[in-house]
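Supplementary notes for students who missed Thursday's class. We covered one full example, reproduced here. Read the sequence, then the structure, then the short commentary at the end.
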Amino acid sequence: MKKITITKSAGFCSGVRRALRLAQQTARSYKNIYMLGDIVHNPRVVSNIKKTGIKKINKLKAQRNGVLLIRAHGAQKSVYEKAARLGYKIIDATCPMVKEIHSLAKGYEQKNYTIIIIGDKRHDEVIGIKGNLKNMPIIISGRKEIKGIKFEHVEKAAIVVQSTQNQDKVKDIVEQLKKHIKKLIFCDTICQPTRLKQKEIQLLPSSQDIMIIIGAKSSANTKRLYELSKKINPNTYWVNSKSQIKKNWFKDKVKVGIGAGASTPDYIIKEIEAFIKGL
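Structure (token representation):
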């Protein structure tokens, strides 16, 4: 008999729940609804949103009575401006915590601080933060990149962080930046749901025979949970559906720990839990 322990924070965060609720409300109230990309990083969720009639597009075009749904990760200023010019009604499902990062970065830029973003350069959230600033920020994804940056002309800087970054990694980067910039303000904008998820995933794996981390491969926060768990428990596996689970993983394994990313719906967690119980 398997003993399964699921982290309390597993699954949707408040920002994702809010975005999906707004999407469903919008689908009931309007037609011709569009999104620039996926609402969150999970294929099952994306598929369900598509069924409501919301269309995914790559670029904005003139659309009569069009509605643009801004995704949970947010968008750059130019998207809002172009949508307004083309006559779209804008429904903004950006996570409030991401909005706060935009506000902090813009506020310090107005005070003539150089903005440094710690985050994944190609991630939608980072693109949105960057796209709401007048000047090009410095974006740092990892400690190694610091060596290649010229700080001679940076008199003062303010750091903001992609909301789902690894806390220890961020602290290390900040300590390195202190060696290069005298006046440095650090805004620790890692969101509370991410902190809780990472804290739990640093505690649970050591007491388990095997760890299952649930979430899409496109999910940055799930990737970090997997990396944290794998360091502690080598028997850690990353899946997004029960079909990806291999029965031989569980041979002679009794205690099973489960964690899940912020864009993983409860029904996928329950499906995988039921599958493991049935082994």
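Commentary. Residues 213 and 226 are 6 Å apart (CA to CA). The chain has three domains: 3-12+193-277, 14-95, 97-190. If anything here is unclear, bring it to office hours.
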